[in-house]
Amino acid sequence: MKFTAAQIASILQGEVEGNPEVEVSQLAKIEEGKKGSLTFLANPKYTSFIYDTDASVCIVNDDFIPEKDITTTLIKVQDAYTAFSTLLEYYNKVKLNKIGIEQPSFVSENVSYGDDLYVGAFSYLGDNVTLGKDVKIYPNVYIGDNVTMGDNVVVFAGAKIYSESIIGNNCVIHSGAIVGADGFGFAPNENGQYEKIPQTGNVIIEDHVDVGAGTTIDRATLGSTIIREGVKLDNQIQIAHNVEIGAHTVIAAQSGIAGSTKIGKHCLIGGQVGIVGHITIGNRVKIQAQSGIGRNVKDDEVLQGSPALNYGDYNKSYVLFKNLPQTVKELNDIQRKMDLK
């Protein structure tokens, strides 16, 4: 796809300085810009590159005044970083804007859907599936019976959405994600064997949620596993049955949350964090990577370690821990000196 500087300026409500008809077809870092590419300058540390870049078009802040001659066409906007992000979003939407039902695929007769649906080849849509407008389902996706999706949902190749799941508007489900698999529910019988407890609930994902590649969200035993509005889940995260994650919480890769735990709003959870079941984590909590959480957590706590401690206490303790061999040696030396007296 090619765009002229004038077209880009129109999208960003910016002003062109240079050739409005110059065309670009790719994006690049300013230090790696080539002819036919679009870049941006937002960080003053990179200003020197604008005088040497071969990029055809560069987005800059509207107060930028070149100190030397430049060859690139400028698009001046109020905030170059925000404008470039907007352009990336627009470009991605255009790139993914496929329409139609490819064959072979299976779409049940009673599936209902809005305008501009795309279903990729080898996908399966079960009975009573309801899809909103502008839904994009890529190849090899499974969508079980009675699933509901809102508008502007993207489900990338190979994702699996089990029956009864509810997905809101403007959500993204990445490749290999599994939504609605059975929770890990087993009970020992009198013979010491484990019998499966039926998982009869579902998963509810609210609006503007991103689910990373390979992430799994289990259905509830009863009721719902709930992912609230604006939650962002990285790749390879395990969310167990009946978990609830509060609005606008962000969780990094390889974290695991055990059953029935409730996580508050606006939390930041690092990679490889483990959280036990049946606890409550408050709002605006920050948990450092590789921490283990085994207790209730109050609002605004910052935690690190396994089991996790207050972040400040952990750092103080770690300084002592690093010096422990030397401390033990000094204590042993003192003990020997005392024994000689």
Describe the structure.
By secondary structure, the chain is an alpha/beta fold. The chain has four helices and 38 strands. The strands form six sheets. It has a twelve-stranded mixed β-sheet. Strand 20 and strand 21 form a beta hairpin. The protein is flat.
- Compute the CA-based radius of gyration: 27 Å
Cross-sheet strand order for the largest sheet? 8-10-12-15-18-23-26-29-32-35-37-38
CATH class of the largest domain: Mainly Beta
Biggest pleated-sheet summary:
12 strands, mixed
CATH homologous superfamily title of the largest domain: Hexapeptide repeat proteins
Can you summarize this structure?
16% of the residues lie in helices and 28% in strands. It has 341 residues and is α/β, with parallel strands linked by helices. It has 2 domains: 3-95, MurE/MurF, N-terminal domain (Udp-n-acetylmuramoylalanyl-d-glutamate--2,6- Diaminopimelate Ligase, Chain: A, domain 1), CATH 3.40.1390.10; 100-314, 3 Solenoid (UDP N-Acetylglucosamine Acyltransferase, domain 1).
SSE layout and pairing:
Layout: E1 3-4, H1 5-12, E2 15-17, E3 23-24, E4 26-27, E5 37-40, E6 57-61, E7 73-77, H2 80-95, E8 100-101, E9 106-107, E10 118-119, E11 124-125, E12 136-137, E13 142-143, E14 148-149, E15 154-155, E16 160-161, E17 166-167, E18 172-173, E19 178-181, E20 186-188, E21 194-196, E22 202-205, E23 210-211, E24 216-218, E25 224-227, E26 232-233, E27 238-239, E28 244-245, E29 250-251, E30 256-257, E31 262-263, E32 268-269, E33 274-275, E34 280-281, E35 286-287, E36 292-293, E37 302-305, E38 308-310, H3 311-322, H4 324-340
